[in-house]
Amino acid sequence: MKKILVYVLLLFFSLLFMAPLFWAVTTALKSQSELYLFPPKWIPSVWKFSNFAEAWNIQPFNMFLKNTLIITILSTFGQLISCTLVAYGFARFQFKGRDFLFLVVLATMMIPWEVTMIPQYMLFNVLGWINTLKALIVPSFFGSAYFIFLLRQFILTIPRELDEAATIDGANKLTVLTRIIVPLMGPSLILVAVFQVMGCWNDYLGPLIFLNDQTKYTLTLGLSQFKGMYGVDMQSIMAITVLISIPPLAIFFFAQRYIVGGIATTGIKG
């Protein structure tokens, strides 16, 4: 009975959390006349799949998608390269002030982005990066304190004997990183990649501040503009929302075992 009660509760809360997504999908498939019925109608009488194509073509969402993909792919690549190098340095190299410097890096996580937003804008304005995608891509190549911490903790779980064996065979530090450490860091690198992709894909405040030209807009800005122009066209708004939500949901679904594995193996050794 205890097991049955647990499964019933899990099923109930699963349906409760899935209800908003189900409502968004069904609303996107409804006709205009069924949107504001009372009591609400969960299942539409006629499934209008054409709502997705019509909503997508109202604004240049193909261009918004291209900009979002460019930012997401390059930012993820930058985070993986920079954070891996920094984490490897903190985990394997011995130098004066290493622990203090690592604490300083961790301390930056306590500074909210809203505090550094204005200094960043002023810096990017001097560099001429305002209204360009550089403002959203280049900072990723300087690493993230959270990702550096995750990768460092994972590298610490890898035995040093592997490094020493490779060094005896004539491998330098970079070879040890690329040939031994990185292949063993698969789960943690996938974890960082998934977090970064979701962060870039759903980012709204960054593009809103740094981008002014519609040709540079991302999907989130395009959706915001769409909602402003067609505030009562609820099924089109829901159609775009559902389409934008599909990639992160798919990535999370296929990478969830790597996410759990990466988090589970992080912090085992301090």
From TrEMBL:
Per the record, the similarity remark reads:
Belongs to the binding-protein-dependent transport system permease family.
Where found in the cell? Cell membrane
The transmembrane segments are 69-88, 100-123, 135-155, 176-198, 236-255
Under the heading InterPro entries, the entry gives: MetI-like, MetI-like_sf
Report keywords, A-Z: Cell membrane, Membrane, Transmembrane, Transmembrane helix, Transport
| Main localisation | membrane
Protein name (record): L-arabinose transport system permease protein AraQ
Give the bilayer topology. Multi-pass membrane protein
Pfam families xrefs: BPD_transp_1 (PF00528)
Q: Which residues form the ABC transmembrane type-1 domain?
A: 65-255
